UniProtKB/TrEMBL annotation:
Short name of any one Pfam family annotated for the protein: RecQ_Zn_bind
EC code(s) of this entry: 5.6.2.4
Lineage: Bacteria, Pseudomonadati, Pseudomonadota, Gammaproteobacteria, Alteromonadales
Presence of the UniProt keyword Protease in the record: no
Cofactor(s), names only, from the UniProt record: Mg(2+); Zn(2+)
Domain of life: Bacteria
GO process terms (BP): DNA recombination; DNA repair; DNA replication; SOS response
Protein name: DNA helicase RecQ
Naturally occurring in which organism (per UniProt): Paraglaciecola hydrolytica
Protein family: Belongs to the helicase family. RecQ subfamily.
Domain named Helicase C-terminal: residues: 214-361
Listed Gene3D superfamilies: HRDC domain, P-loop containing nucleotide triphosphate hydrolases, Winged helix-like DNA-binding domain superfamily/Winged helix DNA-binding domain
GO CC annotations, alphabetized: bacterial nucleoid; cytoplasm; replisome
Length: 516
């Protein structure tokens, strides 16, 4: 351990270990397998880089991020550490040179892409060398229970058998209990020492708003912000549309998704990192391994599929420790659709796990209590008390007697024969003079115009709450038509009251306006 402290200060120039680093390094030096769960920016790299320098032989680092390998190796070289990488970007001449260097013991660390590592010739080469340790970065990629599962990562499970005496390290920033166990199992870690750092990111403020006219909401939000941001959408089409809408508002932004040419994606990424583009509108294809410290906000235009992916995506904000915002646009009907979609998957066991994960993120979105607490609890980091840095803590939901509103909505659903979606329902409630309403003679219904006093967004929110309360359900087999449930009857018969939360309709974060 003495040597480790020396390397920390002499090679890397740091005076102290961060939380967990010393414990992890100690275990690796004692030849024990280790699983490291630390949030992004927590300092995972030193957990294997320092042992690599202390131990006598060569250390292998498996990383899926080909685009970052060169940067990491360059950074190590700058510290005076001899390291190299092996991936598909090398030409055969470079490859030969690296292989020769490995043979001659010239390197302390080799970064390698999993697909390259698992080729027979590479494994054979390694078997003739003195291997000190194998580190698997982004280890959640071995787990089926995540979104990032990679086929090549699955093969890594064979490494343990091939190098039974070499300590193996799995490192990840995403780890709920299920994924955690899965990583250890898939990598065949032998009674691993598990270190789990705190996943709290106190400088990120969590905000949720009921999704309604989402493009307008995002425009409004973005105009309240300064600095860089990422907006995640769940389809390429939405990315393109939203990027266009923002650009029309004079926002300096770009769309990013897997449908773009590789070199264009690289260019956009570079422009974003170097502050030439303020905002990236992207699918989840964007961001893995992006090292940009001054991202000030992350918006989710659509509901993610799990708390893990949500946490990972919002974790790209505020790495510099300065205040940052996370905004989730939440729509109950999106949730119903995603739920249906997950349930229709072929693998029943897997659907089950995905549904559980989805239920957790849904609960986060619908929460009426501190959102940070929900998030941390999910990562088995139990915290009491209120964070004072989420929308719920800062502006607690106010309950009101929503019986009358509920009756208006439910009776209107009934009058419309349970055959319409929420927007048309709102149009009737608010008594809009629309051609379709007159054609169907719905202006003659007793419920026409009874909700005139409130806005579309207000009713949208109330409908969401009624779905959430189980008084209404969305029939997605039928164009998301709203149906009454059994629970709605006593409310309609006026034998039961309904407590609702006062709808939160605008996003006002009290921030300075973006100057455009
Ligand atoms: P992760 O891989 O967990 O996202 P990194 O290993 O990239 O995080 O570390 C994040 C940043 O913290 C890097 O800039 C790194 O140099 C710095 N860092 C890591 N350990 C220490 C330490 N003990 N003291 C000071 N800075 C550190
Ligand atoms: Zn809170």
């Amino acid at each position: 351990m003495e040597q480790a402290v020396q390397v920390l200060s002499q090679t890397f120039g740091y005076s102290e270990f961060r939380a967990g680093q010393a414990e992890v390094i100690e275990q690796v030096l004692a030849h024990r397998d280790v699983l490291v769960l630390m949030p992004t920016g927590g300092g995972k790299s030193l957990c294997y880089q320092i042992p690599a320098l202390v131990l006598p032989g060569l250390s292998i680092v498996v990383s899926p991020l080909i685009s970052l390998m060169k940067d990491q190796v360059d950074a190590l070289n700058a510290y005076g550490v001899s390291a190299a990488y092996v991936n598909s970007n090398l030409n055969s001449e470079q490859l030969v040179s690296v292989f020769r260097g490995m043979q001659e013991g010239r390197y302390k660390l080799i970064y390698v892409a999993p697909e390259r590592l698992m080729k027979m010739d590479f494994i054979e080469r390694l078997q003739h060398l003195d291997i000190s340790l194998i580190a698997v970065d982004e280890a959640h990629c071995v787990s089926h229970w995540g979104h990032d599962f990679r086929k090549d990562y699955r093969l890594l499970g064979q490494l343990k058998a091939q190098f039974p005496h070499v300590p193996m390290l799995g490192l990840t920033a995403t780890a709920d209990l299920a994924t955690r166990a899965d990583i250890a199992q898939q990598l065949n870690l032998q009674q691993p020492f598990v270190f789990k750092g705190s996943f709290d990111r106190p400088n990120i403020r969590y905000n949720q708003i009921t999704k309604y006219k989402a493009t307008d909401q995002v425009i409004q939000f973005v105009k309240q912000q300064d600095g860089s941001g990422i907006i995640y959408c769940n389809s390429r089409k939405k990315v393109d549309e939203l990027a266009l809408a923002l650009a029309r508002q004079g926002v300096n932004c770009a769309g990013y998704h897997a449908g773009l040419e590789g070199n264009i994606r690289d260019l956009i990424q570079r422009d974003f990192i170097q502050d030439r583009i303020d905002i990236i509108v992207a699918t989840v294809a964007f961001g893995m391994g992006i090292d940009k410290s001054n991202v000030r906000f992350v918006v989710h235009f659509d509901l993610p599929r799990s708390i893990e992916s949500y946490y990972q995506e919002i974790g790209r904000a505020g790495r510099d420790g300065m205040p940052a915002e996370a905004l989730l646009l939440y729509d109950e009907k999106d949730a119903v659709r995603i739920r249906q979609w997950i349930a229709s998957g072929e693998n029943v066991e897997r659907n089950e796990v995905e549904l559980q994960k989805f239920t957790a993120i849904e609960a986060f979105g619908e929460a009426q209590t501190c959102r940070r607490q929900i998030l941390l609890n999910y990562f088995a980091e139990y915290s009491a008390g209120q964070c004072q840095n989420c929308d719920i803590c800062l502006d607690p939901p106010k309950a009101f007697d929503g019986t009358l509103d509920a009756q208006k909505v439910l009776s209107c659903v009934l009058r419309l024969q349970q055959q319409v979606g929420s927007q048309y329902l709102i149009d009737v409630l608010r008594g809009k003079q629309l051609k379709r309403i007159f054609e169907l003679q719905h202006e003659q219904l007793s419920t026409f115009g009874i909700g005139k006093a409130q806005s579309d967004a207000y009713w949208h929110n109330i409908i969401n709450q009624l779905i959430h309360r189980g008084l209404l359900r969305v029939d997605i087999t039928q164009h998301a038509v709203l149906k009454l449930t059994e629970e709605a009857r006593p409310v309609l018969r006026q034998t039961q009251t309904v407590q609702l939360a006062v709808p939160r309709l605008t996003i006002d974060l009290g921030k300075k306006k973006r100057v455009s």
